[in-house]
Amino acid sequence: MTLMEEASSGRVPQSIERVARKEGIDPAKLARLVAAGRVVIPGNVRREGLDPAGIGEMLAVKVNVNLGTSQNLDSAEVEVEKALAASEAGADAVMDLSTGGDLDLVRKKILAAVKVPLGTVPIYQAAVKQELTSQGMFDALERHARDGVDFVTVHAGVNKISLERLRQDPRLIGVVSRGGSLTMKYIADTGEENPYYQEFDYLLEIAREYELTLSLGDGLRPGCIEDASDRAKYMEFIMLGELVKRARAAGVQAMVEGPGHVPADEIETSVRAMKHLTGGAPLYLLGPLVTDVAPGYDHITAAMGGVIAGMAGADFLCATTPSEHLDLPNREDVIEGTYVTRIAAHAADLTRPGVRERARSWDLQMSRARAALDWDGQFQAAINPARAKQIRHRRGLETDTCTMCSELCAIRLAKEAMEKERDKDPKRA
C-alpha cells in the first residue's frame, strides 16, 4: 500500500510517527490529514536515511531550496556543497534543477549527500538529452524515481487549452516557467497533447510504484506584476484541482505549485483560490515576489510575499536568492536565501492554526533573553546564531548592552526606574 492508503486503513506508518514527533501533533490526527491528501510526506521507497518532512495543514511552513547546474556552470561538487549548505542552514527540502553536465551524476551525488527530501523536474533531463517526446518524458521521470527522488514537478496542468488561453489573453512576459515553456514547445512542435496530462493515469502508476510525491507544477505562473492573477493562471488552478482529485483516488500524494510575481494585495485571494480549487492540497509557492524592481534583493521581495501567503494557507515556500533573475546562485546566495525564507516561514507560523503556540514559544525564548540582557541566550534563540555573534562582536567592544545604546540602554534604564518605583511602595518596605 502507499502511504496514503496505509494512513486510510487506520495504521500510523513510521514516517508519520516521526513527523508527528517533530511537529508536536497527534500521530493519529496527522495520519488522517495524510489520508485526506491535506498533508504530504515525500519519501521514495528506494531512498535510504531520509529525514522526512511533513508539508501541509496544521504543520509548520516548510522551506525548499533550489540548486543545480546550468549549461554554463556544471560542477557536481559545487551543487553538492550548496545542497549541504542549504540543509545546514535549515532547509526542509532541496530541488535539483540541473541542466548542465552529467545530470544523473549530479542527482545521485546530492541524494547521497543530504538527508532531506529531494525533488527534481524530469522534463529538464528529457530536453537536455533531446528526448522531448512522450517516451522521453516518461523515461526521465522513471529514471529519477528509480534513483530515489522523493518528489517531482510535473507541469501536467499545461495543455492545448493553455496555449489557446494565452493566445486569447496575451501576457507581457508570457511563460517564465522553464518546465511550462518546454511543455508548450512539445505541444506546438508535435501537435500532440502534453503527455503528463494525456497519460496522467500512467504517471500515477509510476508514482505509486516508487511512493513518488507529485508536485503539480505551475507552468503558467505569472513572471511579472503586470501578468499576475490573469485567466490563464486561474484556469491552471482548476486543472490542477482535477488532477489532485485523481491522484488522491489512486493513493498518490500530491501537492500543488503556485506563483510567481503577485502584488501584495492579490496574494491572499490567489492562495485561498488555489486551496479551494485543489481541495486543500498542500501548496508550494515560489515567493510570491511582490515587486519586479529589486534585482539583487529578490530574496527579500519573495520573503515579503511568503509571509502573506503563509498566513493565507501556503504550506511550502521555495527560497529565492539574491541571484534571482541575474545569475546561478553560489553557496553564499543559497545560505542567505535559506535563512531569509525560513524567517518568512516562521513569521507565517506565528499566525497559523495548530502551529501558532509552538512558533510563539521560540519568540518568547528570545524575548526573555533580551529582557535579561542575556547574550548567550539570545544567540541560542537566534535563527542564525553565527551571524548574530559575528555582528555582536565585530567591533571588538565587549559591553553588557549593544553598542548602539550603550549606557542609554532602554531595557536597563526602564528596569532600574521600575525597581526604584517598587522600592517606594510602602507595602514592600
What does this protein structure show overall?
The structure is a single chain. By secondary structure, the chain is an alpha/beta fold. Helix content is 52%, strand content 9%. The chain is built from 19 helices and ten strands. The protein has helices at residues 3-8, 14-23, 27-35, 76-88, 103-113, 122-128, 134-147, 160-168, 178-190, 195-198, 200-210, 231-249, 264-277, 298-312, 331-349, 356-371, 375-381, 385-393, 410-424, and strands at residues 39-40, 55-56, 62-67, 93-96, 118-120, 151-154, 213-216, 254-258, 283-286, 316-319. The strands form two sheets. It has an eight-stranded parallel barrel with strand order 3-4-5-6-7-8-9-10, surrounded by seven helices. It has a two-stranded antiparallel ribbon with strand order 1-2. Helix 12 links the parallel strand 7 (213-216) and strand 8. The relative contact order is 0.10.
List the topology elements.
Blueprint: H1 3-8, H2 14-23, H3 27-35, E1 39-40, E2 55-56, E3 62-67, H4 76-88, E4 93-96, H5 103-113, E5 118-120, H6 122-128, H7 134-147, E6 151-154, H8 160-168, H9 178-190, H10 195-198, H11 200-210, E7 213-216, H12 231-249, E8 254-258, H13 264-277, E9 283-286, H14 298-312, E10 316-319, H15 331-349, H16 356-371, H17 375-381, H18 385-393, H19 410-424
Parallel strand pairs: 3-4, 3-10, 4-5, 5-6, 6-7, 7-8, 8-9, 9-10
Antiparallel strand pairs: 1-2
Helix pairs in contact: 2-3, 4-5, 4-15, 6-7, 7-11, 13-14, 14-15, 16-17, 17-18
